[in-house]
């Protein structure tokens, strides 16, 4: 893929999921595996600082200092050591500020917006960077402590709601639903914090009530699991009416996507099972994913090749789950998914643009990664909370 010839939109140089940082990850993975020259990778990393790097309260894994630092850390190259040290000062400050705002909101008994806690724009995403960068540390522990508080129920107008029940709209540009909503997806919902808590626990980074928070999230997912075994699935979104009645108004599985569907939700539960040494939980999550990737009705709902909600995301999620699944049949389904992605690309071509989530970059990374038998050198899919 050649460097873009278009005029980059504002923020493109610092947007991990839609801009230059995501594209740089591909070049770094190619350089670290000997598939491309480091000079090409360096030319892309230079694009990350074309504008002044943002380090204010809007900074997140998606945008600004954490996004740029995630890529430079993934490079594993001493050439970026001084830049990372400088960026980390900004990330420490913004983490502290964002935590103060979040704890103040909890202390007031108010509900959050997704951007406070989610993977893409929230503290979960910043925690992903801190875990990859340091494997621990005070800032990461403070993020985990906040996520534990996030799982505690909140009383609102006489109703007991999950602490992560969101007040904003799940759909950009549309009004927020009355009564808020519950988001179960790994990109914007509670399974993002679940995956981070699990990944930290697997690295022996735990805080007070860490396991209890994981168990609370799992209990909520169990409550909203539809069907059983290989037919199990979870809704991506819940309305207040669903919560009030205890049952779904719209009983239809979401498309099998990384972002909102059963694949991402099942992978987070698999990681939680591994963290808790709960073999039953791990196996049930793997069984649900196996059923998803072999269900023609669910697969028919995939209409593109992207990481976010297409074949590449389903493939990458299944491949990662299979690495941790031991003798699970998941391994047998990876090749079939690779063929489905190849067939889609042959018929429709690669997505336009260099975006990681919804462009060609993510597809290329998934193809490159899943053709191997070992995790990627850059661990680029940590930004999807898929790494083990």
From TrEMBL:
Transmembrane segments: none annotated. SMART domains: LANC_like. It comes from the Bacteria. InterPro entries: LanC (IPR033889), LANC-like (IPR007822). Gene3D superfamilies: 1.50.10.20. This is Lanthionine synthetase C family protein. It comes from Cryptosporangium minutisporangium.
């Amino acid at each position: 893929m050649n460097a873009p010839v278009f005029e980059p939109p504002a923020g493109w140089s610092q947007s991990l999921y839609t801009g230059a940082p995501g594209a740089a990850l591909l070049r770094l993975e190619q350089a670290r595996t000997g598939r491309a020259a480091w000079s090409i990778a360096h030319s892309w990393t230079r694009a990350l600082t074309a504008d002044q790097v943002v380090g204010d309260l809007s900074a997140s894994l998606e945008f600004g200092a954490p996004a740029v630092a995630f890529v430079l850390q993934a490079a594993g190259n001493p050439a970026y050591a001084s830049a990372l040290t400088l960026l980390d000062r900004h990330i420490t400050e913004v983490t502290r500020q964002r935590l103060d705002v979040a704890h103040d909101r909890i202390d007031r008994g108010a509900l959050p917006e997704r951007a406070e806690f989610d993977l893409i724009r929230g503290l979960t995403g910043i925690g992903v960077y801190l875990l990859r960068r340091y494997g621990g540390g005070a800032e990461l522990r403070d993020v985990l402590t906040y996520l534990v508080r996030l799982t505690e129920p909140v009383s609102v107008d006489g109703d007991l709601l999950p602490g992560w029940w969101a007040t904003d709209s799940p759909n950009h540009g549309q009004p927020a639903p009355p009564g808020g909503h519950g988001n179960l997806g790994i990109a914007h919902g509670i399974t993002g914090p679940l995956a981070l808590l699990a990944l930290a626990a697997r690295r022996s980074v735990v805080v007070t009530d860490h396991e209890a928070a994981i168990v609370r999230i799992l209990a909520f997912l169990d409550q909203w699991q539809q069907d059983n075994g290989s037919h199990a699935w979870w809704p991506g979104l819940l309305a207040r009416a669903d919560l009030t009645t205890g049952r779904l108004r719209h009983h239809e599985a979401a498309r099998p996507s990384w972002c909102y569907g059963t694949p991402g939700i099942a992978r987070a539960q698999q990681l939680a099972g591994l963290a808790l040494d709960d073999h039953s939980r791990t196996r049930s999550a793997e069984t649900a994913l196996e059923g998803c990737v072999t269900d023609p009705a669910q697969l028919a709902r995939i209409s593109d090749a992207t990481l976010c909600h297409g074949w590449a995301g389903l493939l990458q999620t299944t491949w990662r789950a299979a690495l941790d699944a031991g003798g699970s049949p998941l391994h047998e389904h990876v090749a079939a998914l690779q063929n489905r992605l190849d067939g889609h690309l042959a018929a429709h071509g690669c997505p336009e643009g260099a975006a990681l989530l919804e462009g060609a970059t993510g597809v290329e990374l998934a193809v490159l990664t899943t053709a191997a038998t070992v995790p990627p050198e850059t661990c680029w899919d940590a930004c999807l909370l898929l790494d083990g």
